[in-house]
Amino acid sequence: MTKTIMITGAGSGLAKGAAIGLAQEGHKVIASVESESQAGGLKDAARAAGVDLEIFKMDITDPTDRQAMKDYEYDIFVANAAINEGGPIWEMPMDDIRRLYEINVFGTLETARIAAEYFVGKKQGKIIFMSSKAEKMSSAYKGLYSSSKHALGAIAKALKQEMEEFNVQVATINPGRFGTGFNDRAVEANWRWFDENKHHTPKDKLEASGNSLNNQMDPQLMIDKMVEIIPMEHHKFRVVYPESTAEDMREEEKKDWDEEI
Questions:
Q1: What does the angle CA 189 – CA 191 – CA 192 come to, to the nearest 5 degrees?
Q2: Please, are residues 86 and 141 in contact by the beta-carbon 8 Å criterion?
Q3: Residue 212 has pLDDT above 90, yes or no
Q4: Are 30 and 52 in contact (CB under 8 A)?
């Protein structure tokens, strides 16, 4: 059965691929992008793939932009828009920290609340939060992003229980580390503000934190999984892919119980 699916932050990365992939499967896709330039790029990609997308500009931190969501009807809402920045939490500029939370947590929650109210009126629907393996795997120099996804996981868990009486489903999708450029941009962002003559964190440790970029997976694998899961009537509350990532997350949680200081 085909669905109408709204997905935010579809101008790049996994969401861009999923929007096109879902449309290729016959679903109607309403794709929001942060900027007009992203809208043009997504239109070109959709045209090249032979599909039509309904595309609109929505910076999820902008109240006026968010109002545009109310002009659409949809069956599934995918809260995907996010940014990733890293570095030592105690030395990162607070403006950067606030900006990441404004997008990853507050802006995301604002859009999910609009979708929740719409679905309650409709008496059915599904909200999917795009989370990450980082939701359960915080580590040095990656804690800011992890904390934002941990917050989303807690929000999703509570919202799932709150929405059940209204016949609205809530879930998360937690990808492993895929090479879309999203993680690379986070590593590059460190050097926008870091000054080894001013900051105390050793530069070599900060550089070494980017070594995980050498082991990124083919994003098409995750895109295919998203295209499979998003329209499904029923699936796990937390969808982690691939399974090796799920195992890593479980092991990390187990280790936390034994950790000492």
A1: 70
A2: yes
A3: no
A4: no
